[in-house]
Design goal:
Arc Repressor Mutant, subunit A; 2% strand; 3-stranded antiparallel β-sheet
Length: 446
C-alpha cells in the first residue's frame, strides 16, 4: 500500500471549529450534494479509510469507554442531557451529575415544567450555568412544537433554538439510529491528523471550514456505499438490516473517534506510541519522514515549531523554506509522553479550550480564576441556590457572601454582575433594582 502524505502547505488552509462549545443556531444548512474535497477522492485515501475503519473499530471494541452511561441508552432526552453536560466539562465531573439530573427530571416534560430555579440547582457543580437554562428552553420548545418529544430529524433538531450542528448530529446518530456525520473537536482533530497530516495550531472558524470538516467526517463514515460522498445523510440503505448496520457502524465509528481523541490522540500530548493508527496516519507519516524516532511528542513539537515559524519567519533566515527541518524536534524516543494516559486533556469541546497556544512561545501570565467574572457569577448562583424556595437576598448581603472584604464600593460591580445574570435568565431581581440604594435591591433564582 502506498499512502501519500499531503503537502504541508495544505495545513495553512482554513478550518472551522465545530464543537460542543458554540451551540448557537447551526450556521450550516442541510445539504445533500457532494462536497467531498478533491484531495479525498484518491485511491490512496480510500485505501487509508478502509484500513482506518478496521483498525479503529477493533481498538474501540477493546478499549472504548463502553461503560459511560449515556452509551447504554437510546433515549433522545437522556442523550441530549449528556451532550449538553459534556460541553465544557470533563467526563468525570459529568458522570455523577448526569444520573442525578435524570433522576430529578426523568423526562423532557418533567424538565420543561420544572421551576427554573430547580433546574439551576440540579446543575450545581457543572459550571456554565447558562447551559441549564438553555437545556430547559430546548425542552419547552420541543414540548410546544413537536408534540412533547424531540424531533427525530436533523433539520427538526436544528430548528430548536440552542441546538447546534454537533448536538443535532449526535442525537440523530446516537438516539435515532441515523448514519449522520457529526464533528466535535476530538473527531475533527483525529480525522485531520489521519487523513491530512499535522493540524494547524489554530483552527480558524468559518462556514466553508465547517462544510469541509463535515464533508471529511461524512466521507469517512463507515457503512454501505462508503465510496460515495455524503454530507448529511450518509446512506440510503435499501433494507432494514442494512439501515441498522449502517446506523450501528456510524454510532461505533463516531464514539471511537471521540474516545481516541480523548484518550490517545490528544491535542497537546498525542500518544502515538499507543495508537492503533500509526501505520495509516498522515500526521505520523509526516513526523516519521523527518526523524528516525517518530513519536507523539515529536509531532506536537513539530506542530508548535511550525506555528512559531509562521509567526516569526525571520528566525528561519530562509523565508522560501517555511517548514522547519525538525531542528529542535527530539531525535530520541520521547520520554515525556509518559503522562499521556494520566493527564486528561481539558475537553476542547467545551470550551474554551480551543487549541490556540503554541508551546514554543512563553506562556502569558494568567489572571487568577478566583478573580474572574466567571468565578463570581458561579459564586452568585451557588449562593442563591442555597436559599429555600421563595427566599431572596439583598444585594449587600449577597456581596458579603460571595466576595471576601466586600464593601459598599463594590455594589456597582456586583449590580453589574447580577444584571448580566438576569439577562441570561439565571437570576431575577425583586424589588429595589432601580433604587439608588443598591443595597436594598433583592435578588433570587428565577
Ligand atoms: S498516530 Fe498519533 S497523530 Fe495519528 S491518530 Fe494516532 S495518536 Fe493521533
Amino acid at each position: 500500500m502506498s499512502i501519500g502524505v499531503l503537502p504541508t502547505s495544505t495545513l495553512a488552509g482554513r478550518f472551522f471549529l465545530c464543537e460542543r462549545v458554540a451551540e448557537s443556531r447551526a450556521p450550516v444548512k442541510t445539504q445533500h450534494r457532494n462536497e467531498t474535497p478533491d484531495w479525498l477522492n484518491t485511491p490512496a485515501q480510500q485505501e487509508r479509510r478502509t484500513q482506518t475503519h478496521g483498525l479503529l473499530l477493533a481498538w474501540y471494541s477493546r478499549y472504548g469507554r463502553h461503560t459511560l452511561p449515556w452509551r447504554h441508552t437510546r433515549d433522545p432526552y437522556a442523550i441530549l442531557v449528556s451532550e449538553v453536560m459534556l460541553q465544557q466539562t470533563q467526563v468525570e465531573r459529568v458522570l455523577p451529575k448526569y444520573q442525578a439530573f435524570l433522576a430529578r427530571f426523568p423526562t423532557l416534560a418533567a424538565l420543561a415544567e420544572a421551576p427554573t430555579s430547580e433546574v439551576i440547582k440540579a446543575w450545581a457543580g457543572l459550571g456554565y450555568n447558562m447551559r441549564a437554562v438553555r437545556l430547559q428552553q430546548i425542552a419547552q420548545e420541543a414540548i410546544a412544537r413537536y408534540a412533547g418529544a424531540l424531533p427525530n430529524t436533523l433539520d427538526g433538531l436544528l430548528s430548536l433554538k440552542g441546538v447546534g450542528r454537533y448536538t443535532a448530529g449526535a442525537i440523530a446518530c446516537f438516539a435515532f439510529d441515523q448514519p449522520v456525520a457529526t464533528v466535535d473537536t476530538n473527531i475533527r482533530r483525529v480525522l485531520w491528523r489521519v487523513f491530512r497530516g499535522i493540524e494547524p495550531i489554530v483552527w480558524p472558524a468559518g462556514v466553508s471550514d465547517e462544510r469541509e470538516a463535515l464533508a471529511l467526517a461524512a466521507w469517512a463514515l463507515p457503512g454501505r456505499n462508503t465510496d460515495q460522498a455524503r454530507v448529511e445523510v450518509a446512506t440510503q440503505p435499501s433494507s432494514q438490516s442494512e439501515q441498522s448496520d449502517a446506523a450501528q457502524a456510524a454510532y461505533d465509528w463516531q464514539q471511537a473517534l471521540m474516545d481516541l481523541g480523548a484518550t490517545v490522540c490528544q491535542s497537546r500530548r498525542p500518544a502515538c506510541e499507543q495508537c492503533p493508527l500509526t501505520e495509516v496516519c498522515a500526521a505520523y507519516a509526516e513526523v516519521a519522514a523527518l526523524t528516525l524516532f517518530p513519536s507523539g511528542e515529536a509531532l506536537a513539537r513539530l506542530r508548535d515549531e511550525r506555528a512559531a515559524l509562521s509567526e516569526h519567519p525571520e528566525h528561519t533566515g530562509a523565508s522560501e523554506h517555511p517548514q522547519p527541518q525538525m531542528g529542535q524536534v527530539a531525535e530520541t524516543r520521547a520520554a515525556s509522553t509518559s503522562d499521556a494516559n494520566t493527564t486528561r486533556e481539558t475537553p476542547e469541546i467545551d470550551g474554551n479550550s480551543r487549541p490556540t497556544a503554541t508551546v514554543a512561545k512563553p506562556r502569558k501570565a494568567t489572571q487568577p480564576f478566583t478573580s474572574t467574572t466567571r468565578y463570581f457569577r458561579g459564586r452568585i448562583i451557588a449562593t442563591l441556590s442555597e436559599l429555600a424556595a421563595g427566599e431572596s437576598l439583598a444585594l449587600a448581603e449577597l456581596g458579603l457572601l460571595v466576595k471576601p472584604n466586600f464593601s459598599p464600593d463594590d455594589l456597582p460591580w456586583l449590580r453589574g454582575l447580577v444584571d448580566g445574570l438576569a439577562r441570561d435568565g439565571l437570576v431575577r431581581w425583586l424589588t429595589g433594582k432601580q433604587d439608588d440604594a443598591a443595597e436594598e435591591a433583592r435578588v433570587a433564582l428565577p
